[in-house]
Design a protein that fits this description.
Blueprint (H helix, E strand, L loop, with lengths): L1 E2 L8 H18 L5 H7 L9 E2 L8 E5 L4 E7 L6 E6 L6 E5 L4 E7 L7 E11 L9 E8 L10 E2 L6 E5 L4 E4 L8 E5 L10 E9 L5 E6 L8 E5 L7 E3 L1 E6 L4 E6 L2 E7 L1 E3 L8 E10 L9 E8 L12 E5 L9 E4 L3 E2 L2 H10 L5 E4 L1
Parallel strand pairs: 3-9, 18-27, 21-25, 24-26
Antiparallel strand pairs: 1-22, 2-4, 4-7, 5-8, 6-7, 8-9, 10-14, 11-14, 11-17, 12-13, 14-15, 15-16, 18-19, 19-20, 22-23, 22-27, 23-24
Amino acid sequence: MTRTGVETKAGRRVRATTKALLAMVAVALLVAPSAGARRDATRIPELALSWQAPTPPDGKTYTIVAGTKLTVAFTAGSEGGPARIWASGLAAGVAFKTTAGLPATAHLSWTPTNAQIGTHVFVVVAGSQSGTVATQPRAIFVQVVPALAPVAGAAAPIGTNGIYRWAYVAQRTAARVRPATSSRIVTHLKIFTLDSTVNLVLLLARATDARGRLWYRVRLPILPNNSTGWVLADDLTTTRSVNTYLVVYRKLFTATLYRGGRPIFRTRVGVGKPYWPTPSGDFYIREILTGYGDPFYGPVSFGTSARSSVLTDWEGGGGVIGIHGTNSPQILPGRVSHGCIRMKNGPDLSLFRLMPLGTPVAIR
């Protein structure tokens, strides 16, 4: 097995860990083509409905100061009859008013608070009343920034300029609820993942404690999903940066990669069945694995920080949610997996060329 862009331990431990991981991933992700999967696929809407002005372009980024108001309008075409518009991933306090019809319209209004500083990804979709036709999902990125420069000791956001930063874990470290060594520990971060790739974390904010030590607030690859914690910068490597963002929309089985707020890749995917759901939330690409030697996984597998809250039969309390290819493309798109995100092998390889480690992932 080849690890792309990461350091690894070598030799016997790699082989043993790889063998164990494959066994575990098989439990979490394995699904065979079935009549049920094909019946589900026949109900998938065609993405042929059109957006109209003044709908913002896909990937539009808004930078807004906390305490000020954002308003965005949407209009969807009416091919084949009345349409309706809905949204996913809305932050607390967002008002989203819709009117179905010929055409359908919607109006988003939000005044974010200081507690909501950071990156927010909202996905907006329109569909026919019959459910047979829908638009391509449109993601809007809202970067909420503080009104004033942070005072000494206050947290400053990372990524609100569209450049997202990550770092490897340099030594075993504690993630805490606040940037202080006296604060409660959320979890411990190890140097290596279950597959012997070097562990990495996505950085969300930075702060300095009373002793002048730098801390980073990071996303944590644990349950419950969307957990965060503060770690000392000294326990991480030098930070790296990316300007890509992957958005997966489960209802219409789409995955779109954005670079600098512009969509550069899109494909239909398979997601988890209702009783083995792909979790929603905000995550990141934690590892990239190639050369499994098993066609089930396709040519490339991306390990994310997301975990299954249903499959809890191995270390860490929940299966790692992966993004990978498939040797059964005929079952896609649809609800076909135990939680992973599956795509055809061609798009899988394209994503490998376009999406680096540390890329944030929004699953909506």
